UniProtKB/TrEMBL annotation:
This is S1-like domain-containing RNA-binding protein. GO terms for molecular function: nucleic acid binding. It comes from Natronobacillus azotifigens. PANTHER family: CONSERVED VIRULENCE FACTOR B (PTHR37296). The lineage of its organism: Bacteria, Bacillati, Bacillota, Bacilli, Bacillales. PROSITE patterns: S1 (PS50126). Signal peptide: none annotated. InterPro entries: CvfB_fam, CvfB_S1_2nd, CvfB_S1_3rd, CvfB_S1_st, CvfB_WH, NA-bd_OB-fold, S1_domain, WH-like_DNA-bd_sf.
Length: 289
C-alpha cells in the first residue's frame, strides 16, 4: 500500500470509532473520517471507500462523498467561487470545493468562468500535495472527438467553451463534437466554461465544426437597428455617427462591424425613423425626453 495522497479514492478499514467520527487505516497509516462525511454508521473492521483531501487546517482527511472526477477521469465541475489572483473553485461532488489555479485559466480575467459556469476538469496535486482541479486541454481530447455529420450544416447547436483566445474559442457540444468559433463570428470573447448557442457554418472533413454566434443577417439587422434607436433615445435623439464614421469607432462603440452598422442605418432610413446631416444621425417623428 502506497503513501496516502490527496485526491486518491481508496478502500480502507475502520480501525476504531471516536467522538467525532472514525479512524481509518490502510494497514500502515491512519486517517480521520468525520461523522458528517459518511451517510451510515460504520463498524470496526468494516471496509469503506473514501476520497482523500486536505481540510482547512491542511490536515489530510477522508470523505465518504466520492467525486466523479479522478486523476485519470475528466468530468464537469460547476464554478462556485471566483478568487482574483488565485483562481476559481469548482464543485466536484465532495464536501469541499476544489481550486482551479489561475495558472490554468486565461490571462484575461474577463474570460475567466463565472459562478454557475462549468469546467471539464481532472484532478492533480500542487507542490504541497493538495488536490487541485485542472481543466481539459486540446491535447487531452486528441483522437477522442466524435465526428459530426454533414447534415448539421446551418443547424443550431450548443455547447460549453473550454478554450478561449484572441483567434477564437473552442467548445464541446452536447453531442461531443469539437466546435470552433472564429473571433469574427462573435460579438465578444466568450468565457471559459460559458454555455453558448450558435449556428453551424461549416462541417469540416475531420468531423469538427465551425460555429457562428452571430445572428443571421436579417435578424442581426433588426437587433442592430433597435440598439441604435436605444442609443439615440438615451442621448437626446442624436448619434454623432453616420455612414462615413470610422469603422474602429463603430466597432468600439457598438461592438458591430461597419457593414452591420450601415445595414441597420439603411433599415432605419427606409422606415423613416432617422435622418442624417452634418455627420450626425437623428431621430425623427419621435419625442425624446
Amino acid at each position: 500500500m502506497g503513501k496516502l495522497k490527496a485526491g486518491d479514492v481508496i478502500t480502507v478499514k475502520v480501525n476504531r470509532k471516536i467522538d467525532t467520527g472514525y479512524v481509518l487505516t490502510n494497514g500502515e497509516e491512519e486517517i480521520l473520517l468525520h461523522e458528517n462525511e459518511v451517510e451510515n454508521d460504520l463498524e470496526v473492521d468494516q471496509s469503506v471507500e473514501v476520497f482523500l483531501y486536505h481540510d482547512k487546517k491542511d490536515q489530510l482527511i477522508a470523505s465518504g462523498k466520492i467525486p466523479t472526477v479522478r486523476f485519470d477521469v475528466f468530468d464537469w465541475g460547476e464554478v462556485t467561487e471566483v478568487k482574483p489572483r488565485l483562481g476559481v473553485f469548482v464543485d466536484i461532488g465532495t464536501s469541499k470545493d476544489v481550486l482551479v489555479s489561475e495558472d490554468d485559466l486565461p490571462l484575461l480575467p474577463s474570460v475567466w468562468p463565472q459562478i454557475g459556469d462549468q469546467l471539464y476538469v481532472i484532478l492533480s496535486n500542487d507542490k504541497k500535495g493538495r488536490v487541485l482541479a485542472k481543466p481539459v486541454t486540446e491535447a487531452d481530447f486528441e483522437g477522442n472527438w466524435d465526428s459530426a455529420p454533414t447534415t448539421l450544416f446551418n443547424e443550431q447547436i450548443s455547447g460549453r467553451v473550454f478554450r478561449s483566445g484572441r483567434e477564437g474559442a473552442v467548445i464541446i457540444t452536447d453531442e461531443g463534437y469539437r466546435g470552433f468559433i472564429h473571433h469574427t463570428e462573435r460579438k465578444k470573447e466568450p468565457r471559459v466554461g460559458e454555455w453558448v448557442e450558435g449556428r453551424v457554418i461549416k462541417v469540416k472533413e475531420d468531423g469538427s465544426l465551425n460555429i457562428s454566434l452571430l445572428p443571421r443577417k436579417q435578424e442581426a439587422q433588426h437587433e442592430d437597428a433597435e440598439m441604435l434607436l436605444a442609443y439615440m433615445r438615451e442621448n437626446n435623439g442624436v448619434m454623432p455617427f453616420d455612414n462615413k464614421t470610422d469603422p474602429d469607432v463603430i466597432s468600439s462603440t457598438f461592438l458591430i462591424s461597419k457593414a452591420a452598422f450601415k445595414r441597420a442605418i439603411g433599415k432605419l432610413l427606409k422606415d423613416k425613423q432617422i435622418e442624417q446631416k452634418d455627420g450626425k444621425t437623428c431621430l425623427i417623428n419621435e419625442d425624446v425626453e
